[in-house]
């Protein structure tokens, strides 16, 4: 039995055909994808030690954290494409300081420094978020002081 590929069908299935042509060893398996998703969701657990947990219970602080992580997750797919082909898989955790005027500053890599390309893409993404946040309210300034500190995890596979 011969397999005949119809050109019109091949055009429509070009992306799928190219994807299917990859060797299985190059494709991430479901366990790695699930583990990466869990790690991304757990990205700020250590932060509770650095900043009083009561601060994060403030509704405005929780909103800042949610917005920071949501914007980072939404944009990460685009930034992952800027990481050079052949870069090994890796996970980095970036510490971000959100100043009371809403500025994102003092971004540093606290875990996974050996993954330079991934860390550079994550830092570039976080710098782009500068100006996306409104200044703190008086009640949040009272609780948090001059800044909120959070950690955001990024995984490249």
């Amino acid at each position: 039995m011969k397999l005949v590929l119809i050109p019109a069908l091949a055009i429509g299935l070009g992306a799928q055909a190219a994807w299917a042509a990859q060797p299985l060893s190059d494709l991430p398996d479901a366990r790695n994808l699930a583990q990466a998703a869990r790690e991304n969701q757990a990205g700020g657990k250590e932060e509770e030690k650095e900043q009083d947990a009561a601060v994060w219970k403030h509704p405005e602080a929780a909103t800042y954290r949610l917005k920071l992580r949501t914007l980072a997750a939404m944009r990460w797919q685009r930034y992952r494409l800027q990481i050079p082909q052949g870069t090994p898989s890796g996970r980095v955790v970036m510490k971000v300081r959100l100043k009371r005027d809403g500025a994102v500053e003092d971004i540093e890599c606290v875990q996974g420094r050996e993954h330079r390309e991934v860390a550079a893409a994550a830092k570039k993404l976080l710098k782009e978020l500068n100006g996306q946040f409104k200044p703190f309210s008086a009640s949040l300034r009272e609780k948090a002081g001059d800044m909120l500190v959070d950690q955001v995890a990024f995984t490249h596979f």
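The first strand starts at residue 90 and ends at 99. The radius of gyration is 20 Å.
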